[in-house]
Write a structure and sequence with these properties.
The chain is an alpha/beta fold. It is about 50% helix and about 20% strand. Strands 1-2-4-3 form a 4-stranded mixed beta sheet.
Length: about 150
């Protein structure tokens, strides 16, 4: 089976905040299987500050606010899916609101971001239904809280 690998940058995080590589690898495998990956691909995953994610959200989406995750497709490199940026402080707030761990939230956001890189979107109701159904199947298979 083709492999989905991540270049993981957690330099902004301290000790227990960091996602264990084995859990990231498990999430990547779950998405790769669900998407029937046909060839080896890589994705860059980084945790960024609120200021950085807000700046990028404004620049690329026209939304001047903090968001939890942004995905950017890589068009120049054939083996790269792209880049996923996760805002740890926002993930921490959402985890508290949802009553689960920050680790669960970060893995949820990783899967969500990966689906965007595979072409899924949730701007229109029909697209949201399709994306969230796929997301829920993947998350449930991984034992990650699949709340919407």
């Amino acid at each position: 089976m083709p492999r989905l690998a991540a270049e993981l940058n957690q330099s902004l995080l301290r000790g227990g905040q960091r996602l264990p590589r084995r859990e990231v690898a498990r999430a990547l495998l779950g998405v790769a299987q669900a998407m029937r990956l046909r060839r080896d691909r890589t994705v860059s995953v980084a945790f960024v500050s609120e200021a950085e994610i807000r700046r990028l959200n404004k620049a690329y989406r026209g939304k001047d606010k903090v968001t939890d995750v942004l995905s950017f497709e890589e068009e120049k490199m054939e083996d790269s899916l792209g880049e996923i940026l996760i805002c740890y402080p926002q993930a921490r707030r959402q985890a508290r609101e949802m009553g689960h761990s920050v680790r669960q939230e970060a893995l949820f956001l990783l899967v969500h971001g990966l689906l965007h890189l595979f072409g899924f979107d949730h701007e229109r109701p029909m697209d949201a239904t399709r994306m969230f159904a796929r997301q829920t199947r993947i998350l449930d298979a991984l034992g990650i809280d699949s709340r919407l």
